Amino acid sequence: MEHVNVTVPDQPLATLFYVNALGFTRDPYVDFGRANIWINVGEQQFHLPTRSPQVLRGHVGVVVPDLNGLAQRLESVARQLEDTRFSYRILKHRIDVSCPWGNRIRCYGPGQFGTMKLGIPYVELDVPTGTSQGIARFYNEILQAPATAADGRCTVAIGRGQTLRFGETRRAIPEYDGHHIAIYVTNFSGPHAALERRGLITEESDAHQYRFTTLVDPKSGKSLFELEHEVRSLFHPMYARPLTNRNPDQSFSTYVKGRDAFVP
Fold first, then answer.
1. Mean pLDDT, consecutive 10-residue segments, the chain of 264 residues?
2. If you write DSSP's letter for every residue of 228-248 in order, what string do you get?
3. Distance between CA atoms of 91 and 138, rounded to whole angstroms?
4. Verdict on whether the full-model pTM lies above 0.90
């Protein structure tokens, strides 16, 4: 999984949250001006196009190098974000954060997701009761991605140390607003053919990318959940693109030469 895409209405506010508060890095090479910003998080990204806000129906898990440093940065921006939906809660082994528009992010320190010290190890979605088994069948049989389901939860292996999670809930789930994730697949044409047979392809982007939104149960054909997937082949020009990550502890007042970059 390469990125999570949610739209935001205010780029300076998004920069304050994702860069100044969370300590992530605005991509220095691919720039869209005011139309979009890409935020590097280790080997993954958040993509934040400028439009009315989208809110993921679930939460994103991230690993940060230092939870104590994160807590200090969150405190430092709290006053500037007090008229938004920004909030944070410090727990024993993580910090739960809400962005200015209500997207939930769970921040963990190194060691809880293998060797990852900075990155996005998982995305978790809230799904209706009774759908987790069918969602697992969808990923196993159509996307050809290893998936398991038990006790109302589905877990899909989507990369080195990464998972896509679906948890059943009885709570009302908001209407889908178009947020998406981007994934790379080793078998590009097989899932495409399986999706096309079911009429699920929504965009033929180019020779190395397509999109689909609806997850269906291969057994019954029933629609289960909506989450747009931007599917890319390993020949996509951005596959395994090296991402620049800064050291968030560097500041004007505490600057140390040679420590600008984050080095795992």
1. 98 98 97 95 98 98 98 98 98 97 98 96 98 98 98 95 97 97 98 98 98 98 98 97 96 93 90
2. EEEEEETTSTTTT-----B-T
3. 35
4. yes
In DSSP terms, 261 is beta-bridged to 246
Q: What is the DSSP letter of 161?
A: T
- Chain Cα centroid distance, residue 88: 18
What the block records as the tokens of 216 is 């269906």
Tokens of 217: 């149960």
> Which is it for the CA torsion 236, 176, 195, 128, positive or negative?
positive
Q: How many Cβ atoms are within 10 Å of 64's Cβ, its own excluded? A: 23
Name the 3-class secondary structure at 77.
Answer: helix
Q: How many Å apart are CA 2 and CA 216, to the nearest integer?
A: 23
User: Which residues face 153 on adjacent strands?
Assistant: 150, 167
Q: Cα separation of 46 and 135, whole Å?
A: 24
The kind and range of the H/E element at 89 are strand 87-90
Q: What is the pLDDT of residue 264?
A: 81
- Tell me if 130 sits within 8 A of 172, measured CB to CB: no
Tokens describing residue 155: 């877990």
Q: By the 8 A CB rule, do 96 and 88 touch?
A: yes
How many residues can be counted in the chain? 264
The string over 31-40, giving b where at least 16 C-beta atoms fall within 10 Å of a residue's C-beta and e elsewhere, is: eeeeebbbbb
Q: What are phi and psi of 38, to 5 degrees?
A: -105, 130
CB-based burial label for 152 (10 Å; 0-12, 13-18, 19+): middle
Q: In which element (H, E) is residue 215 found?
A: strand 209-216
The H-assigned helical ranges of the chain are 11-15, 67-77, 132-141, 189-197
